[in-house]
Design brief:
Layout lengths: L1 E5 L5 H11 L6 E7 L15 E3 L8 H14 L4 E4 L8 H6 L4 E5 L11 H7 L4 E8 L9 E8 L6 H24 L3 E4 L2 E4 L2 E2 L1
Parallel strand pairs: 1-2, 1-4, 2-3, 4-5
Antiparallel strand pairs: 5-6, 6-7, 8-9, 9-10
Helix pairs in contact: 1-5, 4-5
Bound molecules: 5-O-phosphono-beta-D-ribofuranosylamine.
Length: 201
């Protein structure tokens, strides 16, 4: 299967997919890395022809940026599009264009803590558990069907940084396992619900 990855930052989640493929743990090809930040370090993890990055401020609107991004993603004919540390909200037009093939990893136990600053919010809320979720992307932010989650404890002396580090450590195996379920056809989405081995859950 052909996987396109959207990333905005350092790309540690992208790296774990690259490592998983190299280690034979995922039969797939990263056919492109796409970013809203031309300087994103994630871009350095793939050869230049597989990179696409534009600054949204070079576009007249969010829709115009998303259309250019969507055209570039479509051009590499991906089976799956994985948002791995992509920090811009994808408009409904983009989401619908790739509906059913678009997933995201979010650093919280959805449906808790949708949106940003999830680690600080988990500490603020006094949560004793936190973690990461891989989910299908729908127009509503962080609201799509959840494929898999990984849990970590929140410790009394945690800072957002210490908690983020603990979550990031489980994000990587979670993402690899989730993308493997997609790549092997075991998990699909239908009408906003997960189907495992063809059975609606
Ligand atoms: C990760 O915590 C991911 O869950 C969130 O952004 C962070 C970036 O990770 N969406 P990465 O190192 O750029 O993959």
């Amino acid at each position: 299967p052909r996987i396109a990855v959207l990333a905005s930052g350092r790309g540690s989640n992208l790296q774990c997919l690259i490592d998983g493929i190299a280690a034979g743990q995922l039969e797939a090809r990263i056919v492109g890395v796409f970013s809203d930040r031309p300087g994103a370090r994630a871009l350095d993890k793939v050869p230049a022809p597989s990179r696409w990055a534009r600054s949204p401020k070079d576009f007249a609107s969010r829709e115009a940026f998303d259309e250019a991004l969507g055209d570039a993603v479509a051009a590499c004919n991906p089976d799956w599009i994985v948002c791995a540390g992509y920090m811009r909200i994808l408009g409904a037009g983009f989401v619908e264009r790739f509906s059913g093939r678009l997933v995201n990893i979010h650093p919280s136990l959805l449906p808790r803590h949708k949106g940003l600053h999830t680690h600080a919010r988990a500490i603020e809320a006094g949560d004793t558990e936190h973690g990461a979720s891989v989910h299908f992307v729908v127009p509503e932010l962080d609201a799509g069907a959840v494929i898999a989650q990984a849990r970590v404890p929140v410790l009394a002396d945690d800072t957002p940084e210490s908690l983020a580090a603990r979550v990031l450590a489980v994000e990587h195996p979670l993402l690899l396992a989730s993308v493997r379920l997609l790549a092997t056809g075991r998990v699909t989405e239908q009408d906003g619900r997960i189907r495992l081995d063809g059975q609606s859950l």
